[in-house]
Request: fold
Amino acid sequence: MTTKTTKLMTLALTLVMLTLGTSPANAWFGDKEKNRKNDRDDIQVEAEEHLAMLSAPLPTIPGPKRTVAVAEFNAVGSFTSVHGGWDIGGGLSAMLTTALTESERFIVLERGNLSTVMSEQQLAANGLTNQESGAKVGNLFGAQLLIMGSVTEFGQNNSGGGFSFGYAGSDLGGAISPQFSKGHVAIDIRIVDATTGQVVNSYTVRKKIESKALAGNINFKGFSFGGNKFNSTPLGEACREAINEVAQKFATQAAAVKWTGRVVDAELGEVYLNAGSNSNIHVGDSFKVYRITKTLTDPTTGELLGQRKRQIGTIEITEVQEKLAIGEFHKHMNVEPQRNDLVIE
Reply:
């Protein structure tokens, strides 16, 4: 290689580096210590900032707020091996919990509480706890609706040439090839009415996001699931869009399910409900009261198959506290209300 050619190559490389100084390709040429500092700063920002999960408001749901619990989603083990031990199912269900909480349309139960209650219910269903004091199948810690899911697709594919620089004969040539990244996620969703144990709806949400940039493959090592750095990647954007679609569809479905509550206590013609102003209950609201006459469970699995009930009266709300409502009871038959009677909008 001649001295002239060497100088031309050095000049060309310098021009390329200057040209790319503000582009994503700078990652190959920038000062390593500066990049490490930027990474530390990004991690600090992730810890201090909160990125809203919802991209648009959920539909308004008339009547009292439904209580919802999000179970941890199932996810295949191959996802975990690729993404450094992430709890994919837990991460996505946590994102959905955040989105539903942000919407202020629901009373959302924490995933940890839900798993504890489900364990207690399983013990009760298997006859290992006292049937009177143990957790009852179908009464999920006050939750009316339960969201369950399975992650069937999750990953990011990278393609494209990245950066290349070549020399042929006496001509100096260089090229920067675009890098394509495609994030994809799919979730099978099931919505269960915890009062009846029936699946009221099921659907699949699938999202694919593609970005084009002058950058190398994205390394997810050190990214926190759901953090700002993760959410800025095609995979993170696909997750957010999928969660938003799940939340929108769930809100629409929840609006078609009547609100239910329980009688806490009753005396001297007054009835106390296990919901108040935090559930959007107001003075003057009226509800029907039902007595559950029979609960039907599978003799093998303990699964709740259905319930038989009859209306015993109505309640007109006269006083509302944060988590409690008090109402006047009007009989429909010669039966007094009692604790755990079902209250329906």
User: Anything to note?
Assistant: The chain has two domains: 3-255, 260-344. The chain has a mean pLDDT of 76. The domain at 260-344 is CATH 2.40.10.410 (Thrombin, subunit H). The chain has seven helices and 14 strands.
